Amino acid sequence: QCMPRVDYDLSKCEDTRDDIRKLLDHELGPKGRLGHIASYIGNRKEMLIDKSQGLFIYLETIIKFIQSDGGDLDTVDKILCQASFPEAEKNLDALYRTVIESAAEMTRISKEIVPFVIGFILASSKTEPLEPRTIHAFLPGAMRVALSTVEEFLSRMSPIFVRTERGIAVRHTSVLDFI
Q: Are 157 and 150 in contact, with CB atoms under 8 Å apart?
């Protein structure tokens, strides 16, 4: 006999909101990863909690995104100024899109190359992750860029990709849903 499917809306669960608030308070504290910009975020903290809609990965991605840009306040503004959607997944998708666009912009990597790099990572992420050197080697000849540019791009993508000893992989399964 099958169990009936039950869906939970984490955005309406006060326990989840409270836990996300506790995590954000800790990260904005003196020992937290965002402590250096706590005063800049200030009273906009509730906006971040609302946008997370119960998804811890949303907040974790924001933290890693700000860290990958060295705590740049323009990055914080990009996040805070994003439109908010009723569906948590759309907020997460918008954040992932912002991370990708920012990484491409900061490294001046061609917009034509971005889908290739991301495609290689996604295609290999579940089987055998690829090293940056291999990803670089797979780029079509007409799109050649320096290996250091690919490595910098991948480094700036660290909020959604992780470098393991085996290669580059997605940080969270929601990235696979996004792409």
A: no
Six-digit token string for 70: 């060295």
What does pLDDT average to over the chain? 85
Who contacts 140 (Cβ-Cβ below 8 Å, separation ≥6)? 116
Integer-rounded Cα radius of gyration of the chain: 18
**39's tokens:** 């005063």
Dist CA 99 CA 130 (whole Å): 20
- Which two three-digit tokens encode residue 95? 């954040």
Predicted model pTM: 0.82
What phi, psi does 130 have (nearest 5°)? -95, 145
Q: For the purposes of burial, counting CB atoms within 10 Å of the CB of 55, is it exposed (0-12), middle (13-18) or buried (19 or more)?
A: buried
Can you state the angle between helices 56-68 and 14-28, rounded to 10 degrees? Answer: 20
Q: What is the pLDDT of residues 117-146, one digit of tens each?
A: 999 998 887 788 999 999 999 998 867 789
Cross-strand pairs, 169: 162
